[in-house]
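On to my pick:
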Amino acid sequence: MHFEFLVEDKSGKEALEILVPEIIGDKHTYKVFAYKGIGRIPSNMTSSVDARNRLLLDNLPQLLNGYGRAWQDCSGVVFMVCDLDNKCLKSFRQELLGILSRCNPRPETRFCIAVEEGEAWFLGDISAVKAAYPKAKDDVLNSYENDSICGTWEKLADAVYPGGSSELSKKGWQVVGKEKSEWAKNIAPKMNVAKNASPSFNHFRSKLQELASQ
């Protein structure tokens, strides 16, 4: 089976490039495509999007329609993986399913949403964080409630970045994005995909394993 993953940023791609093979093994193929932000769901499924606009949700209707047309005769699955941020999980999932329902033909698709942010998946494996960053602050890590809406990337920064999230934020969003990619590259290889305390990571893993086992 072939899997294609649509993620909202480079750090998501860095993480999945490491984690997906650990989950599906070597009997399947996959590609991960990173966008330059989450964007927003367009009101019109058929509206054209500027090719330079690399925002995931803005492009999603066209992407899913394209997969539906291209994959009619092959075994492939699309996974869209993104952060929940401050959205309502139930409403957001219904919006995504609404886009999929209007595709004809409809590609095999799974929507996997990190709650609150992708860093929740790293914080779901404290041992991996500590292995990657031995000086990480235990009091910060132990205060985290899995998949809570708490400023997740800031929580991880407070644990592992010198000066914490306040110091990192002063350096601007480009430096924050670069640091998130470093977290992905350093923590993901240490993770045990079979043991993670993040419910949203476990949902992603189970959906992927279910399809890979067919």
